[in-house]
Design brief:
The chain is an alpha/beta fold and about 220 residues long. Helices cover about 35% and strands about 25% of the residues. The protein is built from six helices and nine strands, in the order E-H-E-H-E-H-E-H-E-H-E-E-H-E-E. The strands form two sheets. A seven-stranded mixed β-sheet has the order 3-2-1-4-5-6-7, covered by helices on one side. Strands 8-9 form a two-stranded antiparallel sheet. About 35% of the residues are buried. The structure holds 5-O-phosphono-beta-D-ribofuranosylamine (GRF). 5-O-phosphono-beta-D-ribofuranosylamine binds next to helix 1, strand 5 and helix 6.
Length: about 220
């Protein structure tokens, strides 16, 4: 028990909340897992905006259900990738975003975007990187015949799924597995490690040294 001496100033330490911006193109189950982790108080952060390149992305609907601001930006209105990304970055800056989370975002970011948010953009990939980067990771995995796969949360650099890795989780690939069943198994793990990686970032516990990410 703390005995307060009269006249002592009580300082209640407020948690520093990190402003998060999410980019998503599709169904948004990872977004949902992140929102739920925030609602449960596991992440010291707040999603300030969810942006999409698809007007009817399910991810936008999920965000709206939680009264999170959303924005659709039509790619064809811009002359190239960099101009498109400049528009996104403009919004992210207006919202004072400190961490950009790619959650099933199907566009490659321009070097401009990546340099603007260096070491502040995360992605999740449904394979154990550096194996099977790029599109159709589950198909590549099943066809190659590996016995173990999984998912990787990594920082985004200018290559394809090549940035420093934050967390990985392995799953077994069984003889019965198809592309679809493997995707489902991996997705369950994605929903665990993505919120966890974001949590670590928000707590200031990720230290990048070269390619390695250390957890303090
Ligand atoms: C996930 O498989 C993720 O690994 C990949 O895109 C998919 C997004 O799924 N980057 P969802 O939209 O979060 O459901």
């Amino acid at each position: 028990m703390t005995t307060l001496v009269p006249g002592t100033k009580v300082v209640i330490k407020e948690k520093m909340m990190i402003n998060i911006g999410v980019l998503a193109s599709g169904r948004g189950t990872n977004l949902q897992a992140i929102i739920e982790a925030i609602e449960d108080g596991k992440i010291e952060g707040e999603i300030k905006i969810v942006m999409s390149d698809h007007p009817d992305a399910c991810a936008l609907k999920r965000a709206q259900q939680y009264h999170i601001a959303t924005q659709y930006i039509h790619f064809k209105e811009f002359k190239n990738r960099e101009d498109y990304d400049k528009e996104i970055v403009k919004t992210l800056k207006e919202k004072k975003i400190e961490l950009v989370v790619l959650a099933g975002y199907m566009r490659i970011l321009s070097p401009y975007f990546i340099r603007t948010y260096k070491n502040k953009i995360m992605n999740i990939h449904p394979a154990l990187l550096p194996s099977f980067p790029g599109l159709h990771a589950h198909k590549q995995t099943v066809e190659y015949g590996v016995k173990v796969s999984g998912c990787t949360v990594h920082f985004v650099d200018e290559g394809i799924d090549s940035g420093p890795m934050i967390l990985q989780k392995a799953v077994e690939v069984s003889d019965e597995d198809t592309e679809e069943s493997l995707a489902e198994k991996i997705l369950q793990e994605e929903h665990q490690i993505y919120p966890r990686a974001i949590q670590l970032f928000c707590e200031g516990r990720l230290v990048i040294k070269g390619r390695r990410v250390f957890i303090k």
